[in-house]
Amino acid sequence: MESYDRLLEAITPSSGPSRDVHDPATGELIGTAPVQDVADLERAIDTAVAAQPAWAALADEERRGYLHRAADAIEAAAEPLAELLSREQGKPLNGPNARFEVGACVAWLRATAETPLPVEVVVDDGENYAELHYRPIGVVGAISPWNWPMMIAIWQIAPSLRMGNTVVAKPAETTTLSGLALVAVMNEVLPAGVLNIVAGPGRTVGDALTKSPKVGKIMFTGSTPVGKRIIEASANNVTRLTLELGGNDAGIVLPDVDPAAIAENLFWGAFINTGQTCAALKRLYVHDSVYDEVVAALVEVAKNVPMGVGLDEQNVLGPLQNRGQYEIVDRLVESAKAAGARVVLGGDPDHDAVGNFYPTTIVADIDPHNDLVVEEQFGPALPVIRYSDLDEVVGLANELEVGLGASVWSADRDRAREIAARLQAGTVWINSHGGLHPMVPFGGAKQSGYGREFGVEGLKAVAEPQVVSG
């Protein structure tokens, strides 16, 4: 797929129901996506079931080789993939955005291929001997979201294939082309039937995927309400689940920080992908003694970060991917304004402009229970809450039902780690927020889901443990 036009041609439906896809930055028509149904899904599942025994029969080294070849194929098509991703999702080519995301697909495939998972000898005492093996589950259903549609799909697909499963992927309805293109490129080198994709509505195709008795595992990244529906839908078959659900990550800034030194990391922790990241920093608690300085330093960084159409090389922030998300952010910021919070940057969108652009917004002096704080905004609006009592702010950070990530910001790393141990979150970062590594397990606490992805734990999560004793 050496060109954008060839890539788009490869995924454009020649027949059947379809829908137009528009650029969220410009409104321009960029392509046509298929709208498939449950019958299409059933055919894809049957294809995956038929292909799975031969795939599982390959040596681990052979499957690892296929992952590397898939990474090579993505690398060769990196620029057209990034262009399509930018046009459909809205994220700019540069910065931690479209090119970065395609590069992450390559990196995660290679890391997954190279992660060792040896047989574990669990007992060997002279009288008893037992080994723990990890066998394929069968077919994995991979349901990916619209914010990082390629990278998160790879997080689901790569470990599933490595462990001998076949995959039926369902991309988000608003980033269908990105998902189709990624799979088309990978299928240039993978055996037929190993990786399948069906593009259809969540309420029909997604629901049928989670209910299918032929699917042994569901991996889902998305909202907590949808995750709960998946739990219910899959219960009858006792389907294995990995759920990475909604977050509303808290950051706590201690009084010993240098505001200017942490401002850029704070900004990107909150505003990466224009705030459309599950594990972004979404509510920032700053000690009273440094509050004004931190807010000022954060504004100084934020006001100089360009936002605009993703294909313009200078931009590093883009539009919100869909109008529904734009309206959520707008509602929450207006709620903060109505309650008397101080908007120190942004908060003044042009509702009549083309594209789903919401300006980079920082809201200060806000009540800790305002809607903008306690609801997940999933966009470029950060509430900054003033605190003076550490025990109180730890309680505020922990009081929500979600717990995906959190961060502590301090010049004293040991003190930061003590506070991290008190936070109810799957990951707590020190002096950064949201950074991920393919060997470091990632997942949520409380209603942010369960199960872990990445590294050895991620491989085990898409396999069936089997003890061989004797």
UniProtKB/TrEMBL annotation:
<dbReference type="InterPro" id="IPR015590">
    <property type="entry name" value="Aldehyde_DH_dom"/>
</dbReference>
<feature type="active site">
    <location>
        <position position="244"/>
    </location>
</feature>
<dbReference type="InterPro" id="IPR016160">
    <property type="entry name" value="Ald_DH_CS_CYS"/>
</dbReference>
<keyword id="KW-0560">Oxidoreductase</keyword>
<dbReference type="InterPro" id="IPR044086">
    <property type="entry name" value="LUC3-like"/>
</dbReference>
<protein>
    <submittedName>
        <fullName>Aldehyde dehydrogenase family protein</fullName>
    </submittedName>
</protein>
<comment type="similarity">
    <text>Belongs to the aldehyde dehydrogenase family.</text>
</comment>
<dbReference type="InterPro" id="IPR016162">
    <property type="entry name" value="Ald_DH_N"/>
</dbReference>
<feature type="domain" description="Aldehyde dehydrogenase">
    <location>
        <begin position="16"/>
        <end position="467"/>
    </location>
</feature>
<dbReference type="InterPro" id="IPR029510">
    <property type="entry name" value="Ald_DH_CS_GLU"/>
</dbReference>
<dbReference type="InterPro" id="IPR016161">
    <property type="entry name" value="Ald_DH/histidinol_DH"/>
</dbReference>
<dbReference type="Pfam" id="PF00171">
    <property type="entry name" value="Aldedh"/>
</dbReference>
<dbReference type="InterPro" id="IPR016163">
    <property type="entry name" value="Ald_DH_C"/>
</dbReference>
